[in-house]
Amino acid sequence: MALPTKAMATNPSQLLPSELVDKCVGSRIWVIMKGEKEMVGTLRGFDVYVNMVLEDVIEYEMTPEGRRETKLDQILLNGNNIALLVPGGMPEDTA
Predict the structure, then answer these.
(1) Share of the chain above pLDDT 70, in %
(2) Residue 37 phi/psi, 5° resolution?
């Protein structure tokens, strides 16, 4: 197998997952958790287990009564409970 060239290294489809998450540090990210919660906040850091620290967070919890929003200054998320990461934050039309 050939070694990746410089052109391949800049192609997002050729990045390792941890490299892509690292590029999101300092920007907004939408985190969909296992269960009924989603978080939108600024990614401040993460580790090899994808535990994450977010700031200026809005937590969305889906309940039988509808969507409940909670604002948090900072949160530490356990990587085992993260199902999906979306760089750029939540789309405006669904917020």
Answers:
(1) 83
(2) -125, 150
